[in-house]
Design a protein that fits this description.
Elements (H helix, E strand, L loop, with lengths): L1 E4 L9 E7 L5 H13 L8 H18 L8 E8 L2 E8 L20 H8 L2 E6 L5 E7 L6
Antiparallel strand pairs: 1-2, 2-3, 3-4, 4-6, 5-6
């Protein structure tokens, strides 16, 4: 696993940090631990626990649904944009496969994006700048002015 911290984010470069994780189940708790460790010193006003929960869901989806012929990684990046915190998760999957589902009560899977939709202030999915899929969520008022 590799990680990067951007100690002095600026308006033209608002990234606070990034992780590159192998596409394996163990990456989910690693992502939770490292995000918590590196976001805490920035003292966001939003719930770190909520962000960690959503990162868990998105990294799990990236590991399960990401596809590539060769070596690939799941990338997690987090940004301070004004008063908002934006977290992106990238994988080499197909962006058109990302959809919000409404699973039945006895369905074992399919609640990850529903959870992100209900906890975050907003979220969206699209094409990653690395190729593949990017899903992100935003927490507004993470740093009130």
């Amino acid at each position: 696993m590799a990680y990067t911290l951007d100690r002095y984010p600026r308006e033209e470069s608002p990234r606070l940090g990034a992780m590159a994780l192998p596409p394996e189940a163990e990456s989910v708790p690693r992502a939770r631990r490292w995000f918590r460790k590196f976001i805490t010193p920035y003292n966001p006003a939003c719930s770190i626990d909520d962000c960690v929960l959503m990162i868990s869901e998105l990294v799990t989806n990236a590991v399960v649904h990401g596809r590539a012929d060769g070596h690939w990684v799941v990338r997690v990046e987090w940004f301070r944009e004004g008063g908002s915190l934006r977290v992106e998760v990238h994988n080499p999957g197909l962006p058109e496969n990302v959809r919000l589902r409404r699973p039945d009560a006895n369905d074992a899977h399919g609640r990850g994006l529903l959870l992100v939709d209900s906890v975050s202030d907003s979220w969206h999915a699209g094409t990653s700048r690395f190729g593949g899929t990017m899903v992100c969520f935003r927490m507004t008022d993470a740093w009130p002015s």
